[in-house]
């Protein structure tokens, strides 16, 4: 919000220079975003518009900081005539308009504002129109109460504060026409709408140079209602900003009194007043407890300072009752952000200076700290994958239709009925969906990185989202991708990585199940994840996996047990077999192991070879390690087992031994 | 007894055959050791007649010198042989290891430092209800204060998001979903299920509906902190914050500046600025004492409990710590960037 230093100085003549003022407001009040010439751009806290979104508010703060005396205009100045009935006010929506007051003035003429006023308005981003309109704006700047002046001659009958009628339109002062709906409150005469309540005045009843009599309006409108209407109309004005933040109805009088004084000074004559108020306006009474303050903030507040701050802020208080350490504070109604003791503690603490506050170690309970399991599992996964040469990426949680298609192609979520969660207000079409899978963006990473590398190993661990029937679900997923130009064997490399990863994370029972062109990682009946592959342009092949980390967490067990090291030497035999192409290596290995599961320690695949010369067959070489726990195996025993293996493979797969 | 020349001949022969230091040592012991052949000759000199002693003595002494020099020379030649036959000025072979994302490293720092101060580390969901993200944090509906957080809403047919006014009418904010705009919803979530005293941090991804540039992303990371007890003060908050930043930027001088601020869920609210090694002031944290209304929403009696909360951007601190100029790099998937960490 823009403020004019000139206007602040008019209200508080001894205020220090703008730079110094800005610095101190930053330290003790609120953020001054910039100072440019006469203009201070100040970020008024959203709950303090009633008290602070005005030059008086800033002057009051400055007076508290710099120990200056500030005579604000919240005290009534002068007597005004009572209601003679020039203006009849009918509030139909008292919730939306708790207070509506007017004063009627006869004018000598409507001229232009002084150069100084014009400059002040300009600094605050307001166009000068004529002396009357400018004066209304000036008083809003000074007091924080929006005011509006109608040309009295244009008002037919009473003033109604009502909801807009269906199909009602209004042309505002800036000559724009708005179609209104029944949720929007308007100020109307007997015939039609004169202004959008709390937002903008209408052109028809505006003050022109020919205006002889004006009706000055100061009202209070419900913040929520103005906020909603200003959003629906997409029309945000200085007035709507004040109202939307919820200003006190007490400001009505302050604003009107100030305007009255200025108008009379300029030669206008006050001829009537009205004030319709449907709300109770009262000061708040709150105790300031010195003991509680110290217990809350961590430092004692000196009585003299507290009193000084309260006086400067416009509060009054009763003297402290003997020995109870409490003063009873009266908070003026316009200071509607102060509702509790904590609010008062905040005022005192900030004016004492947060920088001045001591720092003090807290007393801590010795209940041991812990980390949620996912953090520990994520650490493990990251450690293992980075040790295996994977780089970690972070991708966006959002993607577009092309990734949605990829996600279904890579078939990560085994539950096929799950759909993507969509964003209601996406920033762009390619960020309209929440990721259901980690892999699609890893594939995009591959395309982006392909020109810098000839192999790529990347992974990401993060939350993914899916719609399951009626429910939206979010779960932690791990995706990884190996890419290179070595061809399809990459998928076996990745399978090895998954195997190592799961074991290292303490998952002891899981299996790989062939599922079409991909591999399912299962534990019992639960699907933990998928391994798959995809070909890309320019000879790139990628293998990827995705694992549901939360399901994985459920299977993690810290079960590590020492198995005695083998004391007797092993016998190693390589056997080569010629098999039909349809024989599956996994099945063959299983068959070999079944020959003697006690003495066959391991079966490793060491070579596979496919060639047309082999006549549609494949040549596979296995290395078999025989070892016993209790003796040294003899060559004879090994030979017998190899023979049994040969028989078994011949019988089951029609294998030829080579 | 062997003649001097015989000793010399056999030594020379044996020395030539030697190929390692151990064998060399054996030869040394055999000839010039305590019971070595040459040592025996030298020791027996005293028993010889004077003229023989005069003849053999100098020869034996000369041979001892010769043998010792030969041994040293041989050792040197071994060293020469064991020299690596590569150009040691050539660059080292590239070893490939995986690299963790800088934000992972930063999160680890955070967790480590706060764990050392007995803070627990808590996880929370990214899709959040409007209730936890706003209402339970004392952010009033239909108030401009809510505009401090530009929000992504989740498409839900029952809340028909196509126009804003119908959203306003949707009463059930517990079912109305959004992407959390901060990690603060976890204050209420955690408090509902735990009884103080406790102290926690909640690191996690958050979302803001805004234009992206070097300083802004639509998804980024925050860390929330919350400490509640019978007598936790604003002065305690300052202590914890300063301890954290001093450890986070260890080895560098860190200065602090506190400014009053406004968040609906804290009171007093403060803004924390830091200056590292005499550089510029940087805004790094919003913090304050937990607002009594937030305790009420969580089912606590605000007369009984008090505490502080803080929130900071992990991306921003990573940018400061690693001198990264653009937040978008974190989410670019550019492996050249990741490999630097």
What does this molecule look like?
The complex is a heterodimer of chains A (658) and B (341). Chain A has 658 residues and is α+β, with helices and mostly antiparallel strands. Helices cover 31% and strands 27% of the residues of chain A. Chain A contains 19 helices and 30 strands. In chain A, a hairpin with a 5-residue loop joins β25 and β26. In chain A, α5 packs across α6, α13 packs across α16 (490-504) and α18 crosses α19 (635-653). The radius of gyration of chain A is 40 Å and the shape is elongated. With 341 residues, chain B is an alpha+beta fold. Chain B folds into 2 domains: 4-82; 102-338, BirA Bifunctional Protein, domain 2, CATH 3.30.930. Chain B is 40% helix and 20% strand. Chain B has helices at 4-17, 21-32, 37-44, 50-82, 102-116, 130-133, 164-169, 185-193, 234-248, 292-297, 314-322, 335-338, and strands spanning 120-121, 127-129, 177-179, 198-207, 219-229, 254-263, 266-276, 281-290, 306-313. The longest helix of chain B is centred in the first third of the chain and has 33 residues, at 50-82. The chains are: A alpha+beta (658), B alpha+beta (341). Chains A and B meet through α2, α7, α10, α12 and α13 of A and α5, β1, α7, β4 and β5 of B.
pLDDT < 50 runs, ≥5 residues of chain B: 161-170
Outline the low-pLDDT stretches of chain A.
none
**Order of strands across the main sheet of chain A:** 18-21-22-26-25-24-23
Describe the biggest sheet of chain A?
A: 7 strands, mixed
* Structural class designation of chain B: alpha+beta
Secondary-structure arrangement, i.e. CATH architecture of the largest domain in chain A: 3-Layer(bba) Sandwich
What portion of residues of chain B belong to β-strands?
15-25%
How many structural units, i.e. domains of chain A?
Answer: 5
Please bin the fraction of helical residues of chain B. 25-40%
Strand-residue fraction of chain A?
25-35%
Strand order of the largest sheet of chain B: 1-4-5-9-8-7-6
Reading off the top of the CATH hierarchy, the class of the largest domain in chain B is best stated as Alpha Beta
- Tell me about the biggest sheet of chain B? 7 strands, mixed
Helix and strand pattern of chain B:
HHHHHEEHHEHEEHEEEHEHH
């Amino acid at each position: 919000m823009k403020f004019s230093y000139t206007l602040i100085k008019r209200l508080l003549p001894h205020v220090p220079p703008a730079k110094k003022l800005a610095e101190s407001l930053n330290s003790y009040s609120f953020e001054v975003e910039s100072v440019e010439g006469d203009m201070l751009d100040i970020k008024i806290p959203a709950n303090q518009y009633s008290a602070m979104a005005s030059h008086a508010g800033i002057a009051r703060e400055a007076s508290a900081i710099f120990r200056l005396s500030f005579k604000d205009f919240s005290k009534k100045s002068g007597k005004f005539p009572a209601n003679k009935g020039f203006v009849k006010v009918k509030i139909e929506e008292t919730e939306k308009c708790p207070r509506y007051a007017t004063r009627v003035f006869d004018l000598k003429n409507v001229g232009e504002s002084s150069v100084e006023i014009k400059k002040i308005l300009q600094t605050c981003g307001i166009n000068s129109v004529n002396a009357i309109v400018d004066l209304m704006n000036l008083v809003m700047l000074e007091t924080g109460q929006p005011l509006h002046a109608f040309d009295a001659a244009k008002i037919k009958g009473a003033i109604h504060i009502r909801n807009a009628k269906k199909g009602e339109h209004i042309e505002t002062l800036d000559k724009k026409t708005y179609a209104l709906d029944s949720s929007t409150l308007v100020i109307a005469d007997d015939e039609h709408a004169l202004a959008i309540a709390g937002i903008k005045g209408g052109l028809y009843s505006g003050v022109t140079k020919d205006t002889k009599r004006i009706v000055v309006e100061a009202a209070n409108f419900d913040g929520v209602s103005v906020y909603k209407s200003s959003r629906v109309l997409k029309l945000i004005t200085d007035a709507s900003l004040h109202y939307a933040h919820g200003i006190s109805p007490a400001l009505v009088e302050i604003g009107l009194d100030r305007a009255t004084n200025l108008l009379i000074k300029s030669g206008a004559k006050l001829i009537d007043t009205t004030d319709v108020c449907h709300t109770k306006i009262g000061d708040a009474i709150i105790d300031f407890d010195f003991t509680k303050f110290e217990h809350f903030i961590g430092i004692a507040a000196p009585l003299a300072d507290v009193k000084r701050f309260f006086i400067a802020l416009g509060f009054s208080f009763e003297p402290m009752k003997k020995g109870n350490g409490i003063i009873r504070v009266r908070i003026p109604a316009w200071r509607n952000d102060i509702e509790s003791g904590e609010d008062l503690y905040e005022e005192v603490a900030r004016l004492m200076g947060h920088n001045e506050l001591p720092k003090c170690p807290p007393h801590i309970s010795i209940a041991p700290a812990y980390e949620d399991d996912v953090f520990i599992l994520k650490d493990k996964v990251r450690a293992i994958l980075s040790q295996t040469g994977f780089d970690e990426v972070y991708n966006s949680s959002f993607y577009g239709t092309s990734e949605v298609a990829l996600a279904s192609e890579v078939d990560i979520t085994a539950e096929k009925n799950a759909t993507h969660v969509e964003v209601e207000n996406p920033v762009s079409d390619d960020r309209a969906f929440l990721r259901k899978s980690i892999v699609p963006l890893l594939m995009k990473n591959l395309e982006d990185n392909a020109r810098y590398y000839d192999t790529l190993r990347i992974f990401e661990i993060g939350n993914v989202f899916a719609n399951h029937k009626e429910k939206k679900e979010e779960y932690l997923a791990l995706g990884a991708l190996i890419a290179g130009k070595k061809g399809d064997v990459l998928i076996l490399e990745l399978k090895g990585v998954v195997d190592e990863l799961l074991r290292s994370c303490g998952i002891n029972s899981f299996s790989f199940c062939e599922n079409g062109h991909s591999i399912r990682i299962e534990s019992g009946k639960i699907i933990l994840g998928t391994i798959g592959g995809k070909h890309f342009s320019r000879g790139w092949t990628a293998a990827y996996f995705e694992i549901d980390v939360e399901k994985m967490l459920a299977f993690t067990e810290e079960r590590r047990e020492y198995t005695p090291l083998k004391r007797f030497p092993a016998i190693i035999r390589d056997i080569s077999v010629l098999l039909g192409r349809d024989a599956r290596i996994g099945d063959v290995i299983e068959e070999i192991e079944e020959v003697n599961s006690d003495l066959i320690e391991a079966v490793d695949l060491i070579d596979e070879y496919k060639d047309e010369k082999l006549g549609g067959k494949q040549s596979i070489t296995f290395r078999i390690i025989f070892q016993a726990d209790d003796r040294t195996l003899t060559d004879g025993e090994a030979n017998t087992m190899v023979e049994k293996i040969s028989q078994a493979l011949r019988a089951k797969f029609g294998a030829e031994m080579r | 007894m062997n003649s001097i020349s015989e000793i010399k001949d056999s030594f020379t022969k044996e020395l030539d055959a030697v190929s390692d230091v151990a064998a060399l040592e054996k030869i040394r012991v055999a000839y010039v050791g305590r019971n070595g052949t040459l040592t025996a000759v030298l020791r027996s000199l005293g028993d010889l007649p004077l003229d023989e002693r005069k003849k053999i003595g100098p020869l034996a002494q000369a041979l001892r010198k010769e043998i010792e020099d030969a041994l040293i020379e041989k050792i040197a030649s071994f060293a020469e042989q064991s020299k690596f036959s590569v150009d040691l000025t050539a660059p080292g072979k590239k070893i490939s290891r995986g690299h963790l994302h800088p934000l992972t490293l930063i999160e680890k720092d955070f967790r480590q430092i706060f764990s050392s101060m007995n803070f627990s580390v808590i996880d929370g969901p990214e899709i959040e209800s409007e209730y936890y993200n706003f209402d339970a944090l004392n952010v009033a509906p239909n108030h401009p204060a809510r505009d401090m957080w530009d929000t992504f809403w989740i498409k839900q047919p029952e809340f028909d998001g196509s126009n804003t006014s119908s959203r306003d009418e949707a009463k059930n904010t517990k079912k109305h979903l959004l992407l959390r705009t901060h990690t603060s919803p976890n204050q209420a979530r955690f408090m509902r299920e735990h009884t103080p005293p406790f102290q926690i941090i909640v690191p996690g991804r958050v979302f803001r509906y805004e234009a992206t540039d070097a300083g802004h992303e639509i998804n980024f990371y925050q860390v929330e902190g919350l400490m509640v007890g019978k007598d936790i003060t604003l002065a305690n908050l300052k202590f914890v914050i300063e301890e954290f930043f001093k450890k986070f930027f260890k080895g560098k001088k860190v200065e602090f500046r506190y400014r009053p601020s406004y968040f609906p869920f804290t009171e007093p609210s403060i803004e924390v600025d830091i200056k590292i090694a005499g550089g510029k002031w940087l805004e790094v944290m919003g913090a304050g004492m937990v607002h009594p209304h937030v305790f009420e929403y969580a089912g606590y009696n605000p007369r009984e409990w008090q505490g502080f909360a803080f929130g900071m951007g992990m991306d921003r601190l990573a940018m400061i710590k690693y001198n990264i100029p653009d937040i978008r790099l974190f989410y670019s998937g550019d492996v050249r960037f990741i490999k630097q960490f």
